[in-house]
Design brief:
- There is one protein chain.
- The chain has 2 helices and 16 strands.
- By secondary structure, the protein is mainly beta.
- Strand 2 and strand 3 form a beta hairpin.
- The protein is elongated.
Length: 272
């Protein structure tokens, strides 16, 4: 019941403290302060886990956080003489729980992969402290609520995967101004109109399928010609025409707008 109550807090938009108040045994010895912070973060996360059927976190005990299963260490980017937690991979663990705010202590994290679990709530606001996070994959979980705006505050993020969750509402137009290489937000409950700045995105792959769009495909899509390779917008309820600017997408190998209600002629390919 405690964990379920804590999970519900993550649907709120306030900045309340949702930490787990981890205490550190004074007998534990840590190689450096970064690893001590990692211990606090990972112990808070372990407290926030309701079910771990594959026992992926069973060895999350003691000060050797680099030995924890699914946790990967590397030299710190600003001090190669110190080890730090650089990656987390708990994919396909069937773990149930939520993400506590203490994960914001993992300030050297570059990769965070937790796809195919049963995590719920949303992404903690203190993820904004992960200034070098490069890949964020929380796909195929039970996250819900509004679009996690905290991802817009991650300056080094290149790979964003939110697919197969229960996020709903609007998708911020600022997402398409970020310097991302891949965006996967398909199979959620987003309802929004593609903004005029959609074509600003430098992605090579973007998948928006199985949401609910309205409005038109913006003409700015033609600006993506230098980078875009794959775009999938199937099953979104689109009822507009296809803009002639898609003829500029000379590098695209996959253009899937199937299972919509598009009208009008297909534009010819343009050579510029």
């Amino acid at each position: 019941m405690y964990i379920r109550q804590r999970q519900l807090l993550y649907y709120l938009d306030d900045n309340g403290d949702r930490g787990e108040n981890v205490t550190v045994d004074p007998s534990l010895v840590f190689e450096n302060p970064r690893l001590k912070n990692a211990y606090i973060a990972l112990q808070a996360w372990k407290q926030a886990i309701l079910s771990d059927p594959l026992n992926l976190t069973v060895n999350w005990v003691g000060s050797d956080v680099c030995g924890y299963k699914g946790v990967f260490c590397a030299p710190a980017p600003d001090n190669h003489s110190e080890k730090t937690v650089a990656g987390i991979d708990l994919n396909h663990g069937d773990i149930a729980g939520y993400l506590p705010e203490e994960l914001g202590l993992l300030t050297d994290l570059a990769l965070f992969h937790i796809n195919s679990n049963r995590f719920c709530g949303t992404i903690p606001k203190k993820f904004q402290n992960l200034k070098i996070l490069f890949e964020l994959d929380i796909s195929n979980n039970r996250f819900a609520g509004k679009f996690p705006y905290v991802v817009l505050k991650l300056p080094e993020l290149k790979f964003l995967d939110l697919r197969f969750n229960e996020f709903e509402g609007n998708v911020p137009k600022e997402l398409f101004d970020k310097d991302l290489d891949a965006i996967f937000i398909n199979h959620n409950r987003f309802q929004f109109e593609l903004p005029d700045n959609f074509g600003n995105s430098p992605v090579s792959v973007i998948v928006l399928a199985s949401n609910k769009f309205h409005g038109c495909l913006p003409a700015s899509i033609g600006h993506m010609s230098d980078t875009l390779n794959e775009i999938i917008m199937m099953n979104n309820g689109l009822r507009s025409c296809v803009p002639e600017e898609i003829g500029l997408l000379s590098n695209v190998t996959v253009f899937d707008v199937s299972f919509n209600e598009l009208m009008g002629p297909l534009p010819e390919r343009k050579f510029v």
